[in-house]
Amino acid sequence: MMVKSLVITTAFLMVGLANAQNYFFTFGDSYSQTGFNITSTKPSASNPLGNPTYPGWTTSGGPNWIGYLIENHNKTLTYAYNFAYGGATVNASLVTPYTSTVLSLIDQVKQFSDNVASKPSHASWTATNSLFGVWIGVNDIGNSWWNSGESTLLGEVMDSYFSQMQILFNAGARNFVFLNVPPIDKTPTMLAQSISSQEGEAAVISEFNSLLSSRVSSFASANSGVNAIVVDTQAPFNLAIQNPTTYGAPNASCYNSDGKTCLWFNDYHPGMAIHNLVAKAVATAKNGTFFTGGSTSTRSIRAPLTF
């Protein structure tokens, strides 16, 4: 079941002049990672990703959705501080990642708090020139969907998730974009499993995404000045999966590390075409504010609902 996109607006978003500098702070897992190290080279006009150089260390074979946004859809110069870490879950004490060295969402937010919440000279962000993006949940579901107490666990995961969003709000964040969980039940990994397993994971994805929309609504209502959007990543993924040849792939299940000749980079991570579609969905959602939206065909990827 496709989860609809949600747009929740509790305040009008005001961004400065077109030549102003914006900041994009992101958190997540391998679907978002670029290998950014906060202690190394900082984002600059010559390399908005900071380190590594564009497109960074990704799991797409090239740019991921963050890279496409920064390079192809930026309304103005935008510095990307990407704290996403491969294998991340929201809270490692709730859903264990594949190794203990993985930085969870909690760890990533702490990195933000320790390094840029104070608005240092290299990241002089404000409430209006900053956007906070979160795409997480793939590993929370992938590592636990079969558990008998999954519904209770998802509630606990959401409690932890939004305690971290409260930290960001308290630091001054006001503009948020949340990406929900894509159809990972359709990854090559899951297509090799039984139909019942695919259906079981799909049901948990739907539950997670429904909870995310509800929690975002509550978060926005409880915190004055929040502008929050939930982008439906099911839509761009399904667009490519249903039309693989349009996006350079012979079918919807092959994978190749070049990130181009198949929809998938490997058996669990999407290649560049899907990442570009996700970027277009986010750009369309934030069109005229932080990013510039795409063509009419791009806009058809998602139909935001405004409350």
UniProtKB/TrEMBL annotation:
One of its GO terms (molecular function) is hydrolase activity, acting on ester bonds. Pfam families: Lipase_GDSL (PF00657). Keywords: Hydrolase, Signal. InterPro entries: GDSL (IPR001087), GDSL_Est/Lipase (IPR051058), SGNH_hydro_sf (IPR036514). Residues 1-20 form the signal peptide. It comes from the Eukaryota. This is Carbohydrate esterase family 16 protein. It comes from Glonium stellatum.
